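#structure-requests
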Amino acid sequence: MSYEVIARKWRPQTFEDVVGQDHVVRTLRNAIESRRIAQAYLFAGPRGTGKTTLARIFAKALNCEKGPTPHPCGTCAACKAIMGGSSFNVLEIDGASSNKVEDVQEKILSSVNQLPVASEGGFRVYYVDEVHMLSTAAFNALLKTLEEPPPYVKFIFATTEPDKVIGTIQSRCQRFDLRKISQADLVGQLGKICKAEGVDAAPDALLAIARGADGGMRDAESALDQIIAFTGKKISEEDVLGVFGLVSRAIVEDLADAVLAGDIVRVLNRLDGLDKAGKDLRRLVAELIDHFRNLLVCIELGGDASNLDVTEAQRATLRAQAGRSTASAALAIVEELIKLDGTLRLALSQRTLVETALIRCARASKLVDLETILKKIAALEAGAPAPAAPVPAAAAAPAAERTKDEGRRTKDEGQGTKDEGPRAKDVVEPWGAPPPPAARPSDRPTVRPSDRPTVRPSDRPTVRPSDPPPGIDIEQVRNRPEVKAALETFGGRIADIR
């Protein structure tokens, strides 16, 4: 007896067996129970998520001898014929190879008016896989029949690219969007298969397979089949990582930690080890994008990671990293990694691109966004003591000396002569103002004592605008991380502290 691969052996045979598509299963079952069965359905979704499986189960539900029923028996002649692919009432067409208008006319339109074979059910079902590959002429040939088919004819279309299906076809169908299957559901189904097959698989090994499958059940089951052939009945995480060139979850999280800490040396050393071990760098970048995306969501939700498709251990790691990072830093890293992923496939030296991108990410993780700077400055201002009012220098001297000095200055001002110009100490210039050009003797104006300005001690400025207010250490302010980051980011300098 020939070997049957796991993906075919464990293909769901009833609606209850379908994993991760509850929204589609519930609608189809309710439609059958209430006899509200449409003439055409469009299943859209990524590969390996159950489009063909659902189409076959739906066909069995319609043609089962108990039916139409949401619980096909799987034992009657109609169910067996559909499961074996030999039913006269269910015709499966590959839209990629039969995409011409002649193919549509030969395989669909020529037989659509024929009654179904009574022994195999009461409905004729046409299932077209990868329907987006049909030509425009082939689509147009279907339009009239699709809109008003005979009551016993049902159409089911499947596609991985629904945007390529013309609008006139979509408007005649009920559309169902199948989702990527969550890691938890994939791990659960793989564990169930391993238990039934007598395979001892470590939980981390199943998680690694689920991560590599990227939401596709068929891919996960095919990978499990390959690993069993490689290792036998006992599977470890190292076996999975070695066969598929994946990176362990712990290494991805450690590399992310190094990036967030700005530890470029650790980033480069870790990347060197992964490259020498033959790991897939493109897959590594995809893992990092997914990790930092989850981190960004966790930060924005205030540390809540309950809605993320990760394990509990991964949630704990994300919460810890969220406390050491900011949304701006995580967003900058994600954008840099997405840019890297777009150019990596065409690069001759992938390692060089990954190294330079991760260095930029490590530097970006230490940048402080403007909003954070403003918040910290506001907090500093709120917590700093209020600057004291400027005190004139003369006011600090004893009162007797101030009185004596004022009297002496008044006497000196009254004894001035016509040839005597204003003294330097009586002239007040704004701080930073350029000195006036030297005047020739003939250009000097004659200043009478009465014209000379009288400056009171209280009028003399004693604090320059560039001087810090009392109680503020300018070096301490300059050395603050947020101020340094602002100066480096905008190329500025400290002009004034108020």
